[in-house]
Design goal:
Length: 344
C-alpha cells in the first residue's frame, strides 16, 4: 500500500510503498477513502508523543470501507462504510463497558500507538466497539473530519461544558478544532465568539456561525467581557498554549466553565488559580469522544444544523499531504485539509 512515512522525528515525510496491515483479533482493516490532516499529526512527527514508535505512518481521522475483519468481530463485515474516533477503547475495561472509551487506560490510537490512516489501509482495534457507520448522505471528505475535530468539539461542548441555548461560548483558536466548536455551538443554539490571530480565520468563523470575532492579543479577554456583558458562560482553548489557556479563563464570567481541548506543551502550564477560586470557575478536560456518543453528532449533521462540509478546504494527494504535515506549525490553512485517496 502507499502511505506517508517518516523514519525519524522531524525528518523527511515520504510517500512509501509498505506492506498492508492485517486485521487483529477483534479488529478490522479499513480501506481508506479520505484522511484528515490534523496538527496533532505534526506533534507526533516532531516527537511530542511518546506513544509513537519509528518508522511511523501518521493519520488518525478517516473514512473508508471495511476490507477485512478479524476473529471475533460480529457487528461489521467487508463493504461497510465506516469511520472511527481517534481514541480506540480496548472494549474490555470498566470505562469501555460504561461508554467512556475515550479514557480507556488501554486505548490505542491509529496514527500514534500504531500506523495510521495517511495510507491506503489502516487497522482498527476492537472493531465492534470503535467503528461507526457513516450515513450515505455524508461525503468522504467531511466524514473524515468527524473522527477528531468535530467529535472532540462535540463532546467538549455537550458532555463536558453542557452548553445551553443562549449561552456565550468564547473559542480561542479558529483552526479545525475551534471552527468545529463554533459550528457546533451555533447549531445547538449557543452564541459563539471566535478569537484568533488570523483575520482570514476570523472571517471564516463569522461565516460559520460565530456572532463576534476578536483578534487575539492582550485585550481579547476584555473585549469578550464587553461583548458578553461580563464574560462568556463557557470558554474553550482549542490551541493548547499557556497564553490561550490564561486568556480563555480570563474571558469567563463568574461561575463560568472552561474546557481545555488543545494539548498543552507540558503538564506544568500555569493556570490562574486565583481567578478560578475567587470566581468559582470550573476547569474541564476533554479527550476525544467514544463511538457510543456519535449518534447525537450524526443527528445534527442529518438535520442540516451541522454541515461539516463547510469546513473542508483543500483536498490533496499524498505528496501535497506530506508537505502540509511538515508545515503545520506555521500559519495553518483556513479550514480542514483532507488527504483524498481518489486523487492519486
Amino acid at each position: 500500500m502507499r502511505a506517508l512515512r517518516y523514519e525519524r522525528f522531524g525528518g523527511p515525510v515520504e510517500v512509501a510503498d509498505l506492506a498492508d496491515p492485517s486485521a487483529p483479533d477483534g479488529g478490522a482493516v479499513v480501506r481508506v477513502a479520505a484522511s484528515g490532516l490534523c496538527r496533532s499529526d505534526w506533534h507526533a512527527w516532531v516527537g511530542h508523543d511518546d506513544s509513537v514508535h519509528l518508522p511511523h505512518v501518521p493519520g488518525h481521522e478517516f473514512v473508508g470501507i471495511v476490507e477485512e475483519v478479524g476473529a471475533g468481530v460480529v457487528s461489521w463485515r467487508p463493504g461497510d462504510r465506516v469511520t472511527a474516533p481517534f481514541v480506540n477503547g480496548c472494549g474490555r475495561c470498566t470505562w469501555c463497558r460504561s461508554g467512556q472509551a475515550q479514557v480507556c487506560p488501554d486505548q490505542t490510537q491509529p496514527g500514534f500507538t500504531h500506523w495510521g490512516s495517511h495510507a491506503e489501509r489502516v487497522a482498527v482495534r476492537a472493531a465492534d466497539l470503535n467503528l461507526v457507520a457513516v450515513p450515505d448522505g455524508i461525503d468522504d471528505a467531511p466524514a473524515a473530519s468527524l473522527g477528531c475535530r468535530f467529535a472532540t468539539s462535540y463532546r467538549a461542548l455537550t458532555a463536558r461544558a453542557r452548553i445551553a441555548p443562549g449561552e456565550w461560548v468564547a473559542v480561542y483558536g479558529a483552526g479545525g478544532v475551534g471552527l468545529s466548536a463554533i459550528m457546533i455551538a451555533a447549531a445547538l443554539g449557543a452564541r459563539p465568539i471566535a478569537i484568533d490571530r488570523s483575520p482570514d480565520a476570523l472571517r471564516l468563523a463569522l461565516s460559520l456561525g460565530a456572532e463576534h470575532a476578536v483578534l487575539a492579543g492582550p485585550d481579547a479577554p476584555g473585549e469578550v467581557a464587553e461583548v458578553t456583558d461580563g464574560g462568556a458562560h463557557v470558554s474553550v482553548d482549542a490551541v493548547g498554549h499557556p497564553a490561550t489557556l490564561d486568556a480563555a479563563v480570563h474571558s469567563l464570567r463568574r461561575r463560568g466553565r472552561h474546557v481545555q481541548i488543545g494539548l498543552l506543551p507540558t503538564d506544568t502550564s500555569p493556570v490562574p488559580m486565583g481567578r478560578v477560586i475567587g470566581w468559582e470557575l470550573d476547569l474541564l478536560g476533554s479527550h476525544g469522544m467514544a463511538a457510543a456518543d456519535y449518534p447525537g453528532m450524526l443527528a445534527l449533521v442529518a438535520s442540516g444544523a451541522l454541515a461539516p462540509e463547510s469546513l473542508v478546504g483543500a483536498r490533496v494527494g499524498f505528496a501535497e499531504a506530506a508537505a502540509l504535515l511538515v508545515a503545520a506549525d506555521a500559519a495553518p490553512p483556513v479550514g480542514i485539509a483532507v488527504l483524498d485517496l481518489g486523487r492519486d
